[in-house]
Design brief:
single chain, 191 residues, mainly alpha, 10 helices, 0% strand, elongated
C-alpha cells in the first residue's frame, strides 16, 4: 500500500510498537517512508537507538536536525537521540551540552554526563536551575531522571543513604518502561 493514508497507518503502528519492540517499530517506519506522505525521521531515529543501531540512529537524527521543516517536537526528539547515543559512545561532554540545550527538566539528563567529565559545579547548577518537580511531565520517566541526578550527586558528596535511596527509587520508577526508555547512563541505576 502506498500514499499518505497508508503511511499514517504504518507510522501509527510503529509508534505503538516503539514501546515493546523497537526493531518492529523500525521496520514499520521503513514501510511508512516507502509508502510516502508522513514525516517519521525523528521517531525512526528513536526506534533505531532503542534497537541498538546507533549508527542509523545518529544518521536519522542528523537528517532530522538538518531539515528546514523539522517541528520543534521532532528537533527535541532528535537531540535526545543524539545525546543518548553519544553517551553510549563515550562523548560525555557533547552529551551534556546537547541535554543542556533542551532546557527545562530535560537538562537534568546532563547531570550524569557532567559528572562523567568531572564538571561537578555545572552538574550542581543543572540540578539547581531545573524547574521544580511539580512542573515535570506526568510520566514515570520525569521523576526517575530527577532522582538519578540527585542520587548521583549524593554519591559524589558521600551521602550514601540518600544516593542509594534515590537511585533505587529511580530504578523502580523505570522498571515498568523496560527497555522502551532512551536514557543515557541507564545502567547506573539497574540495581
Amino acid at each position: 500500500a502506498t500514499g499518505a493514508r497508508a503511511s499514517e497507518v504504518l507510522a501509527a503502528a510503529a509508534d505503538e510498537a516503539l514501546r515493546t519492540s523497537p526493531e518492529l517499530a523500525g521496520e514499520l517506519f521503513d514501510a511508512a517512508v516507502r509508502a510516502g506522505g508522513v514525516e517519521v525521521t525523528a521517531r525512526h531515529a528513536q526506534a533505531a537507538a532503542l534497537a541498538g543501531d546507533s549508527g542509523r540512529a545518529l544518521r536519522l537524527a542528523d537528517e532530522t536536525l538538518a531539515a528546514s521543516t523539522t517541528t520543534a517536537a521532532d528537533r527535541r526528539r532528535a537531540v535526545s537521540v543524539t545525546a543518548a547515543v553519544l553517551a553510549q559512545r563515550g562523548f560525555a561532554g557533547r552529551t551534556a551540552e546537547l541535554y543542556l540545550t533542551l532546557g527545562d527538566a530535560d537538562a537534568l539528563l546532563a547531570v550524569p554526563a557532567l559528572l562523567a567529565t568531572g564538571d561537578l559545579d555545572r552538574a550542581r547548577e543543572a540540578l539547581a536551575t531545573a524547574p521544580p518537580s511539580e512542573h515535570d511531565a506526568p510520566t514515570l520517566t520525569a521523576p526517575a531522571v530527577r532522582l538519578l541526578a540527585t542520587g548521583l550527586l549524593a554519591t559524589v558528596d558521600g551521602d550514601l543513604p540518600t544516593a542509594l535511596s534515590d537511585l533505587t527509587r529511580a530504578a523502580e520508577l523505570l522498571e515498568p518502561a523496560g527497555e522502551a526508555v532512551l536514557l543515557p547512563y541507564l545502567s547506573l541505576i539497574h540495581i
